[in-house]
Specification:
The protein has 9 helices and 12 strands. By secondary structure, it is of the alpha/beta class. Strands 1, 4, 5, 6, 7, 8, 9, 10, 11 and 12 form a 10-stranded mixed sheet that branches. Strand 4, helix 3 and strand 5 form a beta-alpha-beta unit.
């Protein structure tokens, strides 16, 4: 067998290091004497399984045993620096740390380290349902199983964690029950210490909701959102959550003229704000207008996004593409940063889509040259997008 094949229990070494950028504290606003809350979020997907460790592949084979054949062939145009890893803590991976020393860590520990180094503040975990509901082999069950590990490692690196209730969270009970479960277990759990790292704004835990972006379910969502906010006894009487809904307009031109769409989702859906999941590089001009529309429904929260590219061709038949480009990624950061200028708000936020969704190739996680796979734009630079994120996030938070 080719010795280059890395069975994941003894994953091969990584030999790259990269410079760090320090971030100075933002000075207080001269008018108010207070610092504007600026945070960078990253969407995180802990749904990978590796057959040598877990007995089966998840996501790396496209969830189709006849489409891709890991570890040599995976469902992505890029090959992770850690190899096709497991998200579970069942094994460790060898890599060269930023201090130049070789370390062994689980994939979650490496990910939290890299996100902290990239000046990311909040890890937004894609959550697909309770681990005690649905079939055990479903990859979507894994994030809930790993949440304690993720939160402990995030807390160790000074990161906050929030949950994105992704898509339909199948076989996991009603939407309100899912929200109560998340709040009880991860935001208000007296039996653990890591609940202190759950992301809060003004003392209120943030729940992000992907869901259906169409108008047909607005009344249903509004009923659920209001019920969860009002029924505080379900989570120990804690402060009600801020529920941030998906504000991406159904991939129909992204941010074209969507003032009606913004108003509908905030008012009729009774959301506390909107986040964007995707963007087109030809529409960066619209970000300032979109933010203004969202925060005009004060105190609504706006979370625009940046993404390095988008290419799901190895995983699905989705024909849509956004070209990956370091220059485009930097421009997206600059435009989104500038979009906040002149839009006064108690908090300014930018999300990264995504840290590690290799199936849609919009990840910033380090990659490597391997077989048909290549690193990012700059040869032999697996950390290119970590470095850009680090620099741009530092500039945004100054």
């Amino acid at each position: 067998m080719n010795s280059r094949i890395r069975l994941l229990a003894t994953v091969a070494m990584v030999v790259f290091a990269w410079p760090l950028v320090t971030v100075s504290a933002e000075p207080p606003n001269e008018a108010t004497g207070q610092t504007t809350d600026k945070k960078v979020l990253a969407f995180y997907f802990p749904w990978y399984r590796a057959k040598p460790v877990d007995g089966r592949w998840s996501k790396w084979n496209g969830n189709d045993p006849h489409r891709h054949y890991p570890p040599e062939d995976i469902a992505s145009p890029y090959y992770p620096l850690l190899g096709p890893y497991t998200s579970t803590p069942a094994t460790t991976y060898r890599a060269v740390d930023s201090d130049g020393r070789v370390k062994w860590r689980t994939s979650i520990k490496w990910h939290m380290k890299w996100m902290a180094d990239a000046n990311i503040d909040v890890v937004v975990v894609s959550w697909w349902g309770r681990k005690d509901r649905g079939a055990p082999e479903t990859p979507e069950r894994l994030p809930d199983e790993l949440m304690p590990e993720i939160m402990q490692e995030a807390m160790a690196k000074g990161l906050k964690v929030a949950i994105l209730r992704d898509q339909d969270s199948v076989a996991s009970g009603t939407l309100e029950d899912q929200f109560y479960y998340i709040l009880q277990k991860y935001a208000y759990n007296p039996a653990v210490t890591y609940d202190s790292c759950y992301w809060r704004i003004g003392g209120r835990p943030v729940l992000m909701h992907f869901g259906n972006t169409g108008a047909g379910e607005d009344a249903t969502f509004a009923g659920v959102f209001n019920q969860v906010r009002n029924n505080r006894t379900k989570y120990g009487g804690g402060a009600p959550p801020l529920i941030i809904s998906n504000g991406t307009p159904e991939f129909k031109g992204f941010l074209k003229d969507n003032s009606v769409d913004v108003a509908r989702k905030i008012v009729k859906r009774a959301a506390d704000g909107l986040f964007l999941w995707a963007r087109g590089y030809d529409e960066t001009w619209a970000y300032k207008e979109w933010i203004a529309k969202v925060i005009s429904h004060a105190p609504a929260i706006a979370i625009p996004t940046v993404m390095p590219g988008f290419d799901p061709s190895e995983f699905s038949d989705n024909p849509r593409r956004v070209e990956r480009s370091a220059d485009h990624y930097r421009t997206a950061w600059t435009d989104t940063h500038l979009a906040w200028d002149g839009n006064p708000s108690a908090g300014a936020y930018i999300s990264v889509t995504t840290f590690n969704d290799f199936t849609e190739a919009d990840q910033i996680e380090p990659v490597e040259d391997y077989g048909r796979y290549r690193t990012y734009n700059t040869p032999n630079d697996p950390f290119l997008y970590i470095t850009i994120t680090q620099q741009e996030a530092a500039d945004f938070k100054r």
